[in-house]
């Protein structure tokens, strides 16, 4: 089934004559415009524009399609505007991407009080950056910056990646091994403990191990659980080790439910960024979400 947004994008390209002009008028990225156009051309089965330099010249079939859809699209847009005016208040909807653990630890508690509609999306960071660029997401929380000129990144906090364990882990024995400053002994002691990992991203463990021992871990965690928050809950049972961002377990460490075992020879820190498109219709809503994150991160 054809996506109505493809027709809207087609109309914008036809009227502006460029992909950039269409992107500016629709407040989406140029790659997003190109994707809509290629999808529509694949659907109808023929080219709609000839690309001459930066100009998009409609083909004869493109002209026929425009004449067929322009008036219905205009009527639909008028209906949309009139409907919005007839309601007491139009509630905007924004889509935000982040990792599952970040959502649970920060934004989840505020969702019911938001003055706008919210769609939360979980995924890998490269995928979320791509969806932000294409206009599918409006804001992402990420430790990685993309290279698209349509996206701006704003640093707002940092996370330290630390080694934590259950309250029954023998930290005195580990401290004795640390005093030797022998990397092989330290690594061997750690490998002999029970480890937790996640079914998805193991990057934190890989980064921490490589920084401290010069290579990726050559063992597999004993227990694989759904996410990092699951690891924290399991560690509260008393045993085991895991490498996690510090903000996820600050309260548990403060309460003595989980132990900070080691920060590593060198501290491993990631900068956290807000990622958003430079042109957006939802700046007020995005600023509201940013404020909530700054409030939460300020407590950690």
UniProtKB/TrEMBL annotation:
Keywords: DNA-binding, Transcription, Transcription regulation
PROSITE patterns, per database record: HTH_LYSR (PS50931)
Annotated HTH lysR-type domain residues: 2-59
Record's keyword annotation contains Acetylation: no
InterPro entries the record matches: LysR_HTH_N (IPR000847), LysR_subst-bd (IPR005119), WH-like_DNA-bd_sf (IPR036388), WH_DNA-bd_sf (IPR036390)
Pfam families reported for this sequence: HTH_1, LysR_substrate
GO molecular function, one term: DNA-binding transcription factor activity
Family matches, as CDD domains: PBP2_LTTR_substrate
Keyword field contains Glycoprotein: no
Family that this chain belongs to: Belongs to the LysR transcriptional regulatory family.
Protein name as annotated: DNA-binding transcriptional regulator, LysR family
Organism: Chryseobacterium ureilyticum
Taxon lineage: Bacteria, Pseudomonadati, Bacteroidota, Flavobacteriia, Flavobacteriales
């Amino acid at each position: 089934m054809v996506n109505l947004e493809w027709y809207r994008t087609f109309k914008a390209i036809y009227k502006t004559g460029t992909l950039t002009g269409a992107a500016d008028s629709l407040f989406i990225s140029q790659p997003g415009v190109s994707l809509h156009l290629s999808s529509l051309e694949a659907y109808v089965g023929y080219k709609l524009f000839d690309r001459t330099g930066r100009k998009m010249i409609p083909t004869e079939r493109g002209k026929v399609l425009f004449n067929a859809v322009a008036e219905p699209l205009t009527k639909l847009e008028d209906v949309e505007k009139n409907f919005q005016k007839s309601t007491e208040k139009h509630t905007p909807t924004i889509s935000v991407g982040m990792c599952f653990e970040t959502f649970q630890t920060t934004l989840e508690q505020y969702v019911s009080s938001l003055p706008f509609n919210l769609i939360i999306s979980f995924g890998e960071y490269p995928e979320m950056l791509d969806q932000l660029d294409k206009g599918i997401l409006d804001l992402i929380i990420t430790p990685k910056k993309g290279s698209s000129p349509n996206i701006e990144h704003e640093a707002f906090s940092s996370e330290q990646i630390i080694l934590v364990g259950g309250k029954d882990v023998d930290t005195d024995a580990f401290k004795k091994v640390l005093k030797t400053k022998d990397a092989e002994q330290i690594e061997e002691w750690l490998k002999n403990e029970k480890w937790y990992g996640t079914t998805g991203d193991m990057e934190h463990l890989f980064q921490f191990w490589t920084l401290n021992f010069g290579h990726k871990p050559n063992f597999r965690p004993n227990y694989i659980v759904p996410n990092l928050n699951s690891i924290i809950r399991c560690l509260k049972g008393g045993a085991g080790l895991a490498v996690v961002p510090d903000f996820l377990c600050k309260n548990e460490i403060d309460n003595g439910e989980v132990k900070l075992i080691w920060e590593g020879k060198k501290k491993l820190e990631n900068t956290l960024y807000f990622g958003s498109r430079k042109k957006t219709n939802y700046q007020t809503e995005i600023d509201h979400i940013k404020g909530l994150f700054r409030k939460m991160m300020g407590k950690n």
